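CO-FOLDING WORKSHEET

Operator: S.A.
Ligand of interest: adenosine-5'-triphosphate
Run index: 636
Mode: holo prediction, single chain
Checklist:
[x] sequence pasted
[x] SMILES validated
[ ] output reviewed
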Amino acid sequence: MSLTPGPVLEPWPDLDRRLARRAEGLLADFNTAGVLEAADVHVAQRVGRLGDESDPRVLLAVALAVRGVRSGSVCVDLDAVPDLAPDADLPWPDAAQWRTAVAGSRLVEAGVLRWDAPLLYLDRYHRLEVQVADDLAARVAAAPPEVDEAALASALALVQGAHFSPEQQTAAERAVRQSTTVLTGGPGTGKTTTVARLLVLLAAQARARGQRPTVALAAFTGKAVTRLNEAVATELARMLSADEEDDHARRLAPAELADFTDLVDRASHPDALTLHRLLGWRPDNSTRFRHDRGNRLKYDVVVVDESSMVELTLVARLLESLRPTTRLVLVGDPGQLTSVGAGAVLGDVVRGFEAPGAGLSGSGPSGSGPSGPVASLVVNHRSEQDIQALAEAVRAGDADEAVRLLRRGGPEVDFVEADQPDVAEKALRDDLVDTAIAVREHALAGRATEAIERLDQHRLLCAHREGPFGVRHWNRLVERWLAERTGQPVTGEWYVGRPLLITGNDYALDVYNGETGVAVADADGRLRAWVSGSASLRDLAPARLDAVETMHAMTIHKSQGSQAQRVTVLLPEEASRLLTRELLYTAITRAEKHVRVVGTEAAVRAAVQRRAQRATGLAERLRELTAGPGQSPETV
Ligand SMILES: Nc1ncnc2c1ncn2[C@@H]1O[C@H](COP(=O)(O)OP(=O)(O)OP(=O)(O)O)[C@@H](O)[C@H]1O
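OUTPUT RECEIVED:
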């Protein structure tokens, strides 16, 4: 199979500059130039030894594939890879000869490497990508679920109201009529509202069969699960409240209202859980779950929110654990940063199914047809128009407009033009210390809920962990300022009012990556770590938390799946390779009421213009699998 490459290059994370001791030839050259890390070289050498392959060009390709996975790609595109280091004078092999050497290599013959010209995969990632493409294509090609038209029509009439626009209604109806739906849209486009209405429509379908639907609301992080669950519950409750702007209670006749109330009740109380919990984590195995093809999930409906965050491996495990009859709704914003782990599944799926001939007809807002799995919402329903406009300019790659909106400012947007760290420090100091002091005061008084609420009012987001614009530096700065303001030194790792960020999943404790909290004094003056996540707010002994960091500042990557009323985005220098459109868009869209961008115009422009792209073949695989006869990508 020949794959036309999709996106190619993920900007480089900071590299480990150590050199591999026994590297020579091409591997040594690329290691010295900083294109490969020592670990990439070691893996390539080892694979070469085991597979009896010594051609340095093949080993270079293996090392680049390993490097690619490390930085989020699923494969390496041999044609595009020289662009990784355009300025370095590197001995890239001749492109045609390189392809031939790789295609005919012992490693490809043995199946250790997979060659889908010009993409080269490590076998494991190839298998995952092929499985995801096959499973998704099979779901989309399968006979649609049976729909009780009368139940759908009457439920649609009931859920109609002020909070259900035509595009939302179309999306929800589509998700009833097909077993797989990808619901996309930017912030505030009403995705969660649509999910809530969809649950009511599905409850009507289940009721027509004399059942209640079993529903799982899931997301990658506990924080995102909580948000989804709360938002859906609020929306369901709001639909029944007479004093809201929505008009169900007033519009519907008493019999209809009773009917509607019954459906909302049936749609309520879904299971809300992280994907790892949904799939059943196993203490003995980090890549396999209790649920798989042989032990499928029993849910009728599985909704996955923030699905841009979900890496290829987890999508593969989710798809294999779903019964063909389970409705899957993937919800997300493809403009956001992709998963931390390898893959860019949501964006790939949207592009893959948007292709002409992908079993689709007509053209919806995203180019997806009325019968395709992708349903896009485009109309913003939030009142924060300026934040939305800024986010949209960034997403669309319009740097002039982004700069114009930033400079224009207003009640929702602020631009602090700072070209030096000390200018940024001066601009942010009071705000950051005020937050830290307020959190500390609540924490000293044992008020955990208030401390966390105060913390959630503002987030300082950085692109980097290290350096003058990095999280570590700003955490230390705020601690120093806090000590200066209070006259009490901040000593040790744990102190009253320490803002917390959980950085790993701990299933036994029920705390998950991305959850936040505060160290609060209890009645005896002992410190407890209060964490807010998918379960209710709970306190733990600090010593029990392994993976926890101080969070006066956090990285934009870690902020995915969460929001704060006010957000400050600290941009690094324009040359930073982490500075991308997706990064800036993700940061801006974390803000509910106000966003402040701190940095230079050049950094804003650099961010808007640089794409965070990963080498994957998923979109193309989906296109090929779903293209109708005579509609292969080459011929349309
Ligand atoms: N059709 C509508 N008319 C008016 N308001 C709406 C409509 N749909 C949603 N809203 C409101 O707009 C706001 C955003 O909706 P919602 O939370 O569903 O969007 P979202 O796409 O899930 O946003 P995010 O991804 O940012 O969480 C909510 O306050 C919601 O009540």
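REVIEW:
The chain is about 40% helix and 15% strand.
The longest strand covers residues 591-599.
[x] output reviewed
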